[in-house]
């Protein structure tokens, strides 16, 4: 009887310079969101990028399944406008947030793209009450030959740990 073994590829280290660039961009995104700098946040995204918060925690078919959020460039701009212009309850009564993004696990890395999974814990404070939002994130980051300042998020998927249950209205971006 012959024994078959599966070769597990060596993990990509977080210290890989390409991965480090992606992590820096992810941290910059978290900072902008906590500061409610939504227009600057949107500029971190590639024009063809998607920002997705699926309901089904296992789905990869975001276009073919129901999502809490499935934003292309047009929808991201509209969402930013609602949160920053005029009188909108999402903007006027928005929670203050502090998020921690950690547990970075590089899934793939090339000279043009890095895919990183991570964990996010977000604490939101509104009307004297704290809410905790926990999620697994996956960022696909497009690396630019022009350097880190030109890197862009090509896709962000936020898999809330409680996505299949009633989720309160956020009034902020995840």
TrEMBL record:
Keywords: Dioxygenase, Oxidoreductase. The keyword Hydrolase does not apply. GO terms for molecular function: dioxygenase activity. The keyword Oxidoreductase applies. It comes from the Bacteria. Belongs to the bacterial ring-hydroxylating dioxygenase beta subunit family. This is Aromatic-ring-hydroxylating dioxygenase subunit beta. It comes from Saccharopolyspora rosea.
